[in-house]
Amino acid sequence: MTESIVSMQGIGKRFAAVKALDGVTFDVPKGSLVSICGENGAGKSTLMKILSGVITDYDGTLSVDGQAVRFSGTRDAEHAGISIIHQELNLVEQLSVAANVFLGREKRSAWLMRDDRSMLEEAGRLLKELECNVPASALAGSLRVGDQQLVEIAKALSLNSRILVMDEPTSALTESEVERLYRVIAKLRERGTTILYISHKMEEVFHLSNQIVVLRDGRFIAQLDTEKTNPQEVTRLMVGRELESIELGERTAQGKKLLAVEKLSLAWPGHARGFRLKDISFDLHEGEVLGIAGLMGAGRTELLECLFGASVLAPTGRIVLEGKEIRPSHPAEALEAGMALVTEDRKRLGIFTAMNVGKNISLCELVSMRSGPAVSNRKEQIASNSMVDKLLIKTAGLQAAITSLSGGNQQKCIIGRWLLTKPKILLLDDPTRGVDVGAKAELYRIIRQLCNEGLGVIVTSSELPEVLTLSDRIMVLSEGRQTALFSRQEATQEKILEAATRGFFTGS
What we know:
By secondary structure, the chain is α/β, with parallel strands linked by helices. Helix content is 32%, strand content 26%.
């Protein structure tokens, strides 16, 4: 029988009235890669935060190497050989890569002075080992997400970590960065590192794992040998039911034209290509979902930012909303014209972590909630509750911390915030990123419901099944150019992928 390096026995955790974990019990074999699967809110991240010392107040017993432990913080867990790489990376962007790797453990010379040269050399060696070709002297904030992630792994290697927790590590990576990460994981396992891996992506779970632990509603459901199960069984265990193909009901007939975009272009100074977007043209009608597909770097996010007045440089071309040309140079102007944008980066650009659920929802409509010179608490509460009810947001109440909600429910709060502004067009940039399969289905139905109410929706996604499920028409971008425009009936995954990798679209 394989020796266990980690043992969880009856682990429980409450956040106010919410029971995040309830008697979770399982063992992790030494040297294995165990995937932790479950819907958002199942307790995966909470459990891993307990293992890595981020959360210190919990019920039950945690054992490492057969000895019961209770870490007083992350430093205590690091001394035991445990490191965690969070989905939202924890680098100090203003410091160098080497400074981040050795933060709080700076090397010292014989004269007790900080030894920057030694840290640069050691960090450089670790980065080379991880196939990360960036200088150790570079600022962490200047790196791509994939390289930032490798800096976090380099830090774990510098700590001689025997147990590494990885929380949704591929959620923001390109395909080449994912392949590199897989190679790094293989090297870590050759060294004998035990890895606990949180992911919603069944393909990578089955590619990497020895075992799969399934959690649901804070409870342990099953621990399965990967080779003896399949994605369908794991998904069924995660949601407690068979997931059938998502049926969104009848699609309403499209109404009048809301938006016309003509030859929209966005310059890219200093880049060999010279542009981020080039001559993009399309229209959008009431009750329609226009899907935007394309590989990483195709220009999907940049297109939505141009429409919403959020691009660093001003685009060229025409944007006509309900027959009137607009040139939003700031999101406030786009909002006034009737647009709303839900960004792909929920933590950095979506939620306000210092505010509660109610404040996060009401934020953009405080002017309409005034009673005299002050905001009316009653009006604010009524407005926020209306979105909680409309979007079926699962929360302990409006006063609950926004960070206590699952990713899917945080996303609903952001959508609710923009719906209070009564937009004509809703821009959704990869709205289900980091959201589990059950919450995705809920968001799909919300989007279809909004279309039935007359909104026009533009949605980007890196997941082709999602684009095909949601969209009435699909526009494909490749390296900043429009390469295809398909009707729902014409579109297939194969056609979209082909268009995403070929030249400029010449059709009408």
